[in-house]
TrEMBL record:
Belongs to the shaker potassium channel beta subunit family. Gene3D superfamilies: NADP-dependent oxidoreductase domain (3.20.20.100). This is Aldo/keto reductase. The keyword Glycoprotein does not apply. Keywords: NADP, Oxidoreductase.
Length: 328
């Protein structure tokens, strides 16, 4: 039977999530990859144990994480049941709904019908009475925003979620949603968006500034650009890399000669700082205290331990930030 490390809270840094009572670890574990039906169960356990033993209390999922959709929640639910139930009150577990999950008109996007059914299914797969954070996963161009926000509010009022969040929203739409949720007195506290040295969309679409203005947290997914901001591809594409074995979210076309040159340039900056490229890339996302937490994925426990070194990273100089921008 798993027993957690008694010193698991000694080194982790916890940041307040927007204007709320909730704190998140600076590094969170995302189950987007490596927790589906194609993954090895014993390795999944090792990843979760390594995370929790080092103060990572937040585990992030979605209804469609797999492959197959739903399998990441199912596998995590098994790990919870077999190992983590004594620690449930020390954990933040989040899930999302917004992408295609089942046939017909009620298994996608942002209707109240879909979000309500999806959350029930997620809770069943994980064996939970509630999740700590329930997100709408993407903006819906057709469903009224009021309806989607009411569905999130209902999730909280029914006791099936403690807080709500939005994922892949832009700044303007997030502010409209925040106003609706404020009127409903619904605890909307966090936004989940892709953000890294190579992807600065939230700076361009107003989301980052809007979160500061509205006092909402941000959690960054893909802070390492699907592994491009690591030492994984410094010498080309390894035969066992995600590009070769999966290819759903990163493919060889994205690793052009110019992108590889940028990666190597960034690696030199990291080396001058005395840290790995991954460590520097995570620190960059967290540099101005606007982002609450970075979501890291891992295929090996050692990768989690390496990413945790960001907690001790030194602040950037203005010169370092200028050099990073040159290679971005």
């Amino acid at each position: 039977m798993y027993r957690a490390n008694d010193r698991r809270y000694d080194t982790m840094k916890y940041n307040r999530c927007g204007y709320s009572g909730l704190k998140l670890p600076e590094v969170s574990l995302g189950l987007w990859h490596n927790f589906g039906d194609t993954a090895v169960y014993d390795n999944m356990k090792k990843l979760c144990f390594t995370a929790f033993d080092n103060g990572i209390t937040h585990f992030d999922l979605a209804n469609n994480y797999g492959p197959q959709p739903g399998s990441a929640e199912k596998n995590f639910g098994r790990i919870l049941k077999e190992n983590f139930l004594p620690y449930r009150d020390e954990m933040i577990i989040s899930t999302k709904a917004g992408y295609d999950m089942w046939p017909g008109p009620y298994g996608d996007w942002g209707s109240k019908k879909y979000l309500t059914a999806s959350l029930d299914q997620s809770l069943m797969r994980m064996g939970l009475a509630y999740v700590d954070i329930f997100y709408h996963h993407r903006m819906d161009p057709e469903t009224p925003l009021e309806e989607t926000m009411e569905a999130l509010n209902q999730a909280v009022r029914s006791g099936k979620a403690l807080y709500v969040g939005l994922s892949n929203y832009d700044g303007e739409t997030m502010k409209k949603a925040a106003a609706i949720l404020k009127d409903l007195k619904c605890p909307f506290i966090i936004n989940q968006n892709s953000y890294n040295i190579f992807n600065r969309t939230i700076e361009k679409n107003g989301l980052k500034d809007a979160c500061t203005e509205e006092k909402k947290g941000i959690i960054s997914f893909s802070p390492l650009a699907q592994g491009m901001l690591t030492d994984r591809y410094l010498k080309g594409i390894p035969s066992d890399s995600r590009i070769v074995t999966d290819g759903r979210f990163l493919n060889a076309d994205q690793l052009s000669d110019s992108r590889l040159a940028s990666i190597r340039g960034l690696d030199r900056i990291a080396s001058e700082r005395g840290e790995s490229l991954a460590q520097m890339a995570l620190k960059w996302v967290l540099k101005d205290n606007v982002v609450t937490s970075v979501l890291v994925g891992a295929s090996k426990p050692e990768q989690i331990l390496d990413n945790l070194k960001v907690i001790k990273s030194a602040p950037f100089t203005e010169e370092e930030l200028k050099k990073i921008d040159e290679f971005s």
